[in-house]
## 1
Amino acid sequence: PLYISSAKERFQGYCKALEEYGVRVDPSMITTGAVTLEDGYQCTKSLLKRKPRPAAIFAFSDFVAFGVIRAIHESGLRVPSDIAVVGYDNNQFAPYAEVPLTTIHVPKEQLGIMSIKVLKDHLVSNQPVTQLKIPVDLVVRESTSKK
């Protein structure tokens, strides 16, 4: 959902990356508001009715991506040969999904440490709270392939 700042930033990064690689952002292929496995499933069912269908789906989270994969398989398509799927979070189930999920790894421990430091600095010395940005990693698994 784009009312969540981190979701909005992910979406902006997604659009920027597409543009950097010369891929036009097609608003008709974008759905927002999917935060659960069921949301991912339902949004994907809707996306699969569109022509042309998407070549890849980047989900808000790994759990949303699990619903995406289920909808793709139920429609008779295959991941990744028909549609590639990428999640976000690198949760503990991602490597064990029906198709091991390519995902974005967020170093949560580092994020937690940095968050506590910013909060402590704010409480102790009244420093303004700053926005934290930490590097993330792409964990490539079987839900994507090089084409």
## 2
Amino acid sequence: MRRWSDADLFWIIQNGIRLTGMPSWKATISDEDTWKLVRFTHALPRLSAVAATQAAKSPEIAKSESDLQAYGKILYRQEGCFTCHRLNGEGGEGGPDLPLEGARGRTDEWIIGHFKDPAVYTPGSLMPAYDNLTDEQLTALTGFLQSQMGPSNR
């Protein structure tokens, strides 16, 4: 792989490249998280294909709550939650508006259980199960959503 400069990779991640399938992430990923992705991308050529795949599936996350929330924000986009749910005035309208759901005072445990099997927690729900996500991913996604919905119910 050609060695892109840090500035090149930052620009590509933020702005995308037309007609290549590389979207712009400027509206959803902070500058700080973009720089983390730049560093990760530079590490990829040094990793074997197996190691790179494993690293992408379970990135090492710092234990701070803000890093987990940043990872949760990435998962929110990556898993397509925004296609059905609205958050901060953006997103689809097929599912509940998430800040309104936050007003219901759901605990982290309830939200994680709902991700794993929505029909158990909300009979008749059209939401797919996210039982493919790891506990760490579910915790990160829940932390991000709770941070967007007001006071924590943890």
## 3
Amino acid sequence: MRDYGIDKDTVEKQVLDAIFRVIDKIKNEKEMGKSEHSIDREVDLMTGSIINQIMLGFSFYGERFKEFSGLKQLLDIQQVYFISFWSLLIEMSPWIRHIPIYVKHFYNYGKKATESLFEYSQKEIEKRIEARKDPNYLPEEGMDVLDQFLESVEETDQNDPENYYKVKYLTAFVYDMFLAGQETTSNTINFLILYLMLDQSSQEKLQNELDKVMEEKRGVAEETGEEFDGKFRQSDPNKDVKIGGHNLKAGTVVIPQISTVLFDERIFPDPEKFIPERFLDENGQFKKIEENIPFGVGKSCVGEALARMELFLFTANFFYKFHVYPPNPLNPPKYEKRQTFAVKLPDYNCSVELRN
């Protein structure tokens, strides 16, 4: 992101603004007498607004909320379809795409959702290209990634086959960044809230630590951690390889099954249990476990720095302000995995107490 003129301080401010929208929304609901809150939905909106602000220069609050609701619905349809019978069938037998019943189920359900998401990205790109034709054009809130990309398009040789700054790549680029920047972080935060709601002891330990290190102020900023350096690195397989007895041709797309490592009991005993202490040494300091690879291995994940920033700032600020507990302690929300393209949770509500 830094290569596109998006510095860490700017992003941190946008992240904090979005986080405090969630906090203020929950506080307002409390003041109005509401006893249960759909924090997971607020987190969805928060993460979607953050990545869209960075990419396209606007959030989804206010009048644009309906846009986000539509996009989220399309994403949900798409992710369910990715692991559906029809999707798996076409992977095994591509010729099936010519059968009418397949066209009915595939196009009207999964493919149509994907096309609609691409159309949304394309529409925003075309609007920006048209706006930039005005010699007096100035971005409303500074240069976003789309503006920076289009500026690079204007400054580079479009006939160079090695040049990736081309408008034809933009639609997929914007779509990929929104999908990766919204779903993954939102999903992680929603798992965290549920885990801490069901494990009051761990939540209290977290809050005791926060009380020790946080002063009374609007919010804590991320003053430690890695430099915000999300460079876009190209990494394509460039030769034939043999892995586990399987021959893979150069250019084959490989998606690692990271969960096989994260749920390996030899490395993480009782992997299904929420045990934060597994990452602490005998002195209570962070213990690095090489096999903990939520962002994969090899060259850095393009969204890792942003995701870490969002996770840290949300956890610190939200749980400093609120204590979260089940609306009905005798019948709390259950930890149930819902399998889509990524493992997700069913919607759930929670109750909160204001701490600070």
